[in-house]
Design brief:
Layout lengths: L1 H7 L3 H10 L2 H20 L4 H9 L4 H18 L6 H8 L5 H33 L3 E5 L5 E5 L2 H28 L3 H29 L7 H8 L3 H8 L5 H23 L13 H25 L6 H24 L7 H22 L17 E5 L13 E2 L2 E2 L1 E4 L2 H16 L14 E9 L8 E7 H6 L1 H7 L2 H6 L9 E8 L4 E4 L3 H17 L2 H4 L7 E10 L5 E11 L4 H9 L3 H9 L3 E8 L2 E8 L2 H10 L9 E8 L26 E3 L4 H10 L2
Antiparallel strand pairs: 1-2, 3-6, 3-7, 4-5, 7-8, 9-10, 9-11, 11-12, 13-14, 13-15, 15-16
Helix pairs in contact: 2-7, 3-4, 3-5, 3-7, 5-7, 5-8, 7-8, 7-12, 8-9, 8-12, 9-13, 10-11, 13-14, 16-18, 20-22, 24-25
C-alpha cells in the first residue's frame, strides 16, 4: 500500500510553487493561441468559419507550431534543476521521494500546458453561443449550405489537444531524465519525439531503393506520420483517428512509468553531463548515425550515375564514420573519443546495417517474388499506362487517382497475376535489355484480399515497350471488364457537363443539348470499344484533344464541381471524327494538316542527326500525320518529322510535342517515327532506301 501511495502521490506545495514561479508559460501560451487563432477570427468576419474549422481540424499552422513547442519549453523549464549539481542536491534533500517529485513535476507541467488551451476552448464556446461557428458543405445542386458546428464538437477537439500534448510532454520529461544539460535536453526532446517516424522513414527509403516493386504509397506516409503527434499533424493536416488517440494515450502513460523508474535510478553526480544513462548514448549514436548514413548515401547517389550502387555504398560508409564521430564528440564533450568503446559502437552499427542491406539486396524475405494466390484475390486495381499526349484513352479522375481500373473476373485476375509474374521474372535483367534510352511509366498494382492487412500492393517503374509486349496485359485491356470502365458511361466519371476541343491552331468550347450529348457519348464509346491493345499502348499523335468536364460524386464526400478527363482523337476514332465533322468542327481538328506543304525527315542515332529528305506528296504527309508518335519508346534510334508551310502554319501553332512532360531531345521535333512505323516505311520507300 505504501509503495502504491508513493507511486501515485503528488506534493501540492510543489505544484503550487511551480504554478507561481512559471505563470508566464501559460500566459504566453494563451497570448500565442489567442493572437494566432481567435483574434484574427474576431477581425475577419468573412473567413472566420473557415479559419476556426482549420483550428479544430489541426490545419492551422500557428496553432500547430505552438501546440508542438510549448510542451518542449515547459519540460525544459521544469527540469532545469536536474542539470546543475547544486540545484539537484537541494531538490533531492527535501523530505519526499523521487516518485512523488516526478509526479508533482508531471502534474505541474500538464497544468501549465493545458491552462491556455482550456481558456481558448471556453472563449470559443462562449463566442459560438453569441455567433455560431459554421462550416460549408457543397450540395448536389452545386449550392453551398452552412452547417452549425455543435458545442460538443468544439469541446471534443480541444480535449483532443490536451491528450496529444500529454504524449509530447511525457516524451520531453523522459528526455530530461536521460540528459544532463539543457541544450542536450532540447535536442533529445526533438529526437525522441521523432525517432520512430525517422527510423521507419529510413527503412522505407532503403526498401524503395533495393526492393523491386516496393510501394511507398500515400498510406505509407500517413502511417509514418501517425507514429508521433509531432509528425502526424504537419504531414496529414488533420485530426488523428480514434485508434491513434488510444495508442497515444497508452504510449504516453507507459512513457511516464518508464520515466519515473529511470528517475528513481538517475545518478545525481551526472548533472551537467550530456547523457546520464549509458544506454541512451547507444540509442542517440545509432539514431543519428543511421540518419547521417542514409542522407550521405542518397546524396552520393544523386550526384552519380543512378545505376551504380558503389557511390551509394561509399556514401553510406563516409556518412557513418563522420556522423558517429561527431555524435560521440558532442556526447563526450571532448575530441578524445578514439577508444575501444567507439570502435565497439561503430562495429555493432556496421554489423546491423550490413544485415539490413544484405536482407534487402538479396530479398531474403521474398518480397519481390511474392504474388498472392488467385483464389484469395477478391479484386485487383491497377493503372493502365496509356502513353501519349496527355492521356488519349479515357482515364477516370476520382479521389483514388486517374487511370485506375479494378478487375474481379477470374480470367482477368489470372491475367494480372501472370503479368505480375512476368515482371518479377525479369527484375534482374541487365540494363541493356531495358535500355536507359527507353521511356518509362509508373505502374501501381493493388490486390484486395480478405484479412486484417487487406491485400498486397506493388509499384514499378517499367519501360513503355514492356507493356505493349506482354500478352497478359494485352488480353486484359481487350476484356469486357476493362472496356466497361474505359467508357464515358463509367459511373465514376459522373455527369458530363461540358466539352472543349483543342486543335493545333485554335480551341473552342462545344455547347450541346442533352440529345447532342448522347450522340457524342455514343460515338466516343463506340470507338473506345473497338480500340485494340496496340492502339491503347501506342504513342500516336492525336489530331486534337477533347477535354470533358464532369459533375462527380465521391463516396462520403462533397461533389466535385469540375472533374476532367482528356481524350486524344486520332484516325482510329472514326465515329468521333465523323461526329465532330458533322457538327462543324472538321476544320478545327484537321484543317492544320492542309496547311503543311512538306515535311522533313531527320534520322537520329544516339543523338547524331542526319537529314533523309523533304516530302511534299499529300499522301505521304497524311501517312506521317496518321502514324506520327509524340513520345519516344526507345530513344537510341528514331526519326523526326518536321512540317514546313510556305504560307506559314496556322495562328496559334505550338508544335505537337511542346507540352510533353518529358525532357526534350537535342532538337525539339514536332513528332517522331520509330523503326517499323508504317509511315516511316512509306517515306523510306519513296527515297529508294
Amino acid at each position: 500500500m505504501n509503495s502504491t501511495r508513493s507511486f501515485f502521490s503528488i506534493s501540492p506545495p510543489i505544484v503550487l510553487e511551480n504554478l507561481r514561479r512559471f505563470w508566464t508559460i501559460p500566459a504566453f501560451g494563451f497570448a500565442a493561441y489567442f493572437l494566432t487563432g481567435l483574434f484574427p477570427l474576431i477581425l475577419d468576419v468573412d473567413n472566420r468559419d473557415y479559419m476556426f474549422r482549420a483550428i479544430l481540424e489541426f490545419r492551422h499552422p500557428g496553432f500547430i507550431a505552438f501546440f508542438c513547442l510549448f510542451p518542449l519549453i515547459t519540460a525544459a523549464v521544469l527540469q532545469r534543476y536536474m542539470f546543475a549539481p547544486g540545484s539537484v542536491a537541494v531538490m533531492h534533500s527535501l523530505p519526499f521521494t523521487r516518485a512523488r517529485l516526478f509526479n508533482s513535476q508531471l502534474v505541474s507541467g500538464l497544468l501549465l500546458i493545458w491552462l491556455p488551451i482550456v481558456a481558448v476552448c471556453l472563449i470559443s464556446v462562449a463566442m459560438s453561443f453569441g455567433s455560431p461557428w459554421h462550416y460549408k458543405e457543397l450540395l448536389d445542386s452545386g449550392a453551398m449550405e452552412a452547417q452549425v458546428i455543435p458545442v460538443y464538437v468544439i469541446a471534443a477537439r480541444f480535449a483532443l489537444m490536451l491528450l496529444l500534448t500529454f504524449f509530447v510532454f511525457a516524451v520531453c520529461l523522459l528526455a530530461g531524465i536521460v540528459c544532463g544539460n539543457t541544450p542536450m535536453h532540447l535536442v533529445v526532446c526533438i529526437l525522441l519525439n521523432s525517432i520512430l517516424p525517422m527510423i521507419v522513414s529510413i527503412c522505407y527509403a532503403y526498401c524503395t531503393h533495393f526492393l523491386f516493386g516496393f510501394d511507398a504509397s500515400s498510406e505509407s506516409l500517413e502511417f509514418i506520420g501517425s507514429l508521433s503527434p509531432l509528425s502526424y499533424l504537419p504531414i496529414t493536416a488533420g485530426a488523428p483517428g480514434a485508434l491513434a488517440i488510444v495508442v497515444y494515450i497508452a504510449a504516453g502513460a507507459l512513457i511516464c512509468v518508464c520515466a519515473s523508474i529511470l528517475y528513481a535510478r538517475r545518478p545525481l553526480e551526472k548533472a551537467g553531463d550530456s547523457i546520464t544513462f549509458r544506454f541512451m548514448e547507444w540509442v542517440i549514436c545509432f539514431a543519428t548515425t543511421l540518419a547521417g548514413t542514409t542522407l550521405m548515401a542518397f546524396y552520393f547517389q544523386t550526384i552519380s550515375d543512378n545505376n551504380n550502387n558503389m557511390y551509394f555504398y561509399a556514401g553510406m560508409a563516409i556518412g557513418a564514420v563522420i556522423t558517429m564521430l561527431i555524435t560521440r564528440i558532442i556526447l563526450k564533450k571532448s575530441p578524445r573519443i578514439w577508444n575501444r568503446e567507439t570502435a565497439v559502437q561503430f562495429g555493432v552499427f556496421a554489423a546491423v546495417v550490413l544485415v539490413l542491406l544484405l536482407s534487402l539486396r538479396l530479398d531474403l524475405f521474398g518480397y519481390e517474388r511474392r504474388i498472392p494466390a488467385g483464389e484469395r484475390i477478391a479484386s485487383a486495381t491497377l493503372n493502365i499506362p496509356t502513353p501519349g499526349y496527355p492521356g488519349e484513352i479515357v482515364q477516370p479522375y476520382t479521389y483514388s487517382g486517374a487511370g485506375f481500373y479494378t478487375f474481379s473476373e477470374p480470367e482477368n485476375i489470372a491475367a494480372i497475376t501472370a503479368f505480375h509474374r512476368n515482371i518479377t521474372d525479369r527484375r534482374h535483367e541487365p540494363r541493356n535489355i531495358w535500355p536507359y534510352y527507353e521511356a518509362y511509366s509508373r505502374l501501381n498494382l493493388q490486390y484486395s484480399q480478405p484479412g486484417i492487412f487487406g491485400g498486397v500492393s506493388r509499384s514499378w517503374r517499367l519501360p513503355l515497350g514492356f507493356f505493349a509486349q506482354d500478352e497478359n496485359l494485352r488480353r486484359l485491356v481487350e476484356s469486357d471488364e476493362f472496356r466497361a470502365q474505359n467508357s464515358l458511361d463509367n459511373p465514376k466519371l459522373g455527369t458530363l457537363r461540358q466539352i472543349s476541343i483543342r486543335g493545333y491552331a485554335d480551341s473552342e468550347q462545344i455547347a450541346l443539348s442533352s440529345y447532342e450529348f448522347d450522340g457524342f457519348k455514343a460515338a466516343v464509346n463506340a470507338d473506345l470499344r473497338l480500340l485494340p491493345a496496340e492502339r491503347i499502348f501506342s504513342t500516336r499523335v492525336p489530331f486534337c484533344m477533347l477535354y470533358l468536364e464532369f459533375q462527380q460524386q465521391a463516396e462520403g464526400r462533397a461533389n466535385i464541381p469540375n472533374g476532367q478527363i482528356s481524350i486524344g482523337i486520332t484516325a482510329d476514332f472514326k465515329n468521333t471524327v465523323e461526329w465532330l465533322a458533322d457538327s462543324g468542327y472538321y476544320e478545327l481538328i484537321t484543317g492544320w494538316i492542309g496547311a503543311i506543304d512538306s515535311i522533313q525527315l531527320v534520322h537520329v542515332v544516339d543523338d547524331v542527326q542526319e537529314s533523309v529528305g523533304f516530302f511534299s506528296d499529300p499522301y505521304l504527309i497524311r501517312m506521317a500525320v496518321d502514324y506520327g508518335e509524340n513520345m519516344l519508346v526507345d530513344g537510341r534510334e528514331y526519326y523526326i518529322v518536321a512540317p514546313t508551310a510556305s504560307s506559314g502554319l496556322p495562328d496559334g501553332w505550338h508544335g505537337i510535342t511542346d507540352d510533353l512532360p518529358m525532357p526534350a531531345p537535342a532538337v525539339m521535333p514536332d513528332w517522331y517515327l520509330s523503326p517499323g512505323n508504317p509511315a516511316l516505311k512509306a517515306l523510306l520507300a519513296a527515297t529508294g532506301e
